[in-house]
Amino acid sequence: MDVNDLKALFAEVSKRMTVALEHARHELAGVRTGRASVTILDPVHVEAYGSRMPLNQLASLSVPEPALIVAQPFDPSQLGAIEKAIRAADLGLNPGNDGKVVRIPIPALTDERRKELSRHVHKLTEEGRNSVRQVRRDANDRLKKLLKDHKISEDDERKGLDDVQKLTDTYIKQLDDLQKKKDTELLGK
After folding, report:
1. Of 91, 94, 129, 147, which one has the fewest beta carbons inside 10 Å?
2. Which of 57, 30, 24 is nearest to 42 (CA)?
3. Would you state the torsion angle of the CA atoms of residues 145, 148, 153, 154, taken in this order, to the nearest 10 degrees?
4. CATH classification (class only), 3-30+110-187
């Protein structure tokens, strides 16, 4: 095995870890923190034109003030369907419309709900860490197999294992930072 194969291994490891990090980042963006953010509406799908469509394809979403999201439908005839879909999404939101836009006030979070959401954040980041660790395990197994098959030297294997661990540590730290930031938003700590 030549160095290019090791480089390809590390490129793949890095790519897979980045995917795990981005997935966690996307999941965390959907966790409500008491401040309005259009990402909390990502799970909302609206029955429109004979199919289920993501809300952001039927309306422009904006945050005119910290505790309010406004959905401006591209087609005003969809107002009722959008309002109904937001209610049905079980996000604890109570939208209302004025005939032109759907206003979605974001209620303040109770302490109990904040703690619950914090536990959810910890669960999501732990899933991200586990994904990163799985990538590390796969890479380490491949390095050990390459050594066993005499395709790389012991030094290359040792250096490879170290490099994979460094990558793992970097991604785990980024996940920890995401978790801390989200906890700070939620709990104000």
Report:
1. 94
2. 30
3. 90
4. mainly alpha
Number of separate helices (H) and strands (E) present in the chain: 4, 6
> Rounded distance, CA 20 to CA 96, Å?
37
Asked if residue 45 lies in contact with residue 87, where contact means CB atoms within 8 angstroms, the answer is no
Q: How far apart (Å, rounded) are the C-alpha atoms in residues 21 and 167?
A: 12
Q: Decide if 72 contacts 101 (C-beta within 8 A).
A: yes
Tens digit of each residue's pLDDT, the chain (189 residues): 455 688 889 999 999 999 999 999 988 877 766 677 788 888 889 988 889 999 989 999 999 988 899 999 999 899 999 999 998 887 778 899 998 999 999 887 788 888 888 888 999 999 999 999 999 999 999 999 999 998 889 999 999 999 999 999 999 999 999 999 998 888 875
Domain ranges of the chain: 3-30+110-187, 38-105
Name the token pair of 104.
């979605």
Comparing CA positions, the residue from 187, 72, 42, 37 lying closest to residue 118 is 187
Q: SS3 sequence, 141-172? A: HHHHHHHHCCCCCHHHHHHHHHHHHHHHHHHH
CA–CA dist 78, 47 (Å, integer):
9
| Torsional class of 151: left (φ above 0), alpha (ψ -120 to 50), beta (otherwise) | alpha
